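Could you help me review a protein record that somebody else here produced? Here is the record exactly as it was handed to me:
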Amino acid sequence: MSDLDAELTSFVYHYEQATNRHDFDLLVPLIADDATYWFTEGSYHGIDAIRAAVERTFATILDEVYTIEGLEWVAVTADLAVCRYRFRWTGVVDAKPASGHGRGTNVVTKRNGAWQMLHEHLSR
């Protein structure tokens, strides 16, 4: 694994850990202001729309644990990279244990010396 791949992988797992804290303010520095997220239930552009969607998920899936598995970097440059992976989640929905899984693709960009999510596409 190259140093750049290791740096990017560290960023993605930091993002995963921040997601599992269920506090969107921890994710804000990790997401570009002009990012677009595509989820199964809809598409969201800009940090405010993404915040609303993610916070809705936090309110729906209580005690969620989100994990990224099989992370692969399919394109990497000094300031833009694309990865794909599988994800799993567990939590409580409507007072009952629940879980799910799917596939993810992310585009990350380096801005002002820091990596940020520019695009996330999660599907079942």
Remarks:
- Residues 3-123 form a domain with the Nuclear Transport Factor 2; Chain: A, fold (CATH 3.10.450.50).
- The two ends are 29 Å apart (CA to CA).
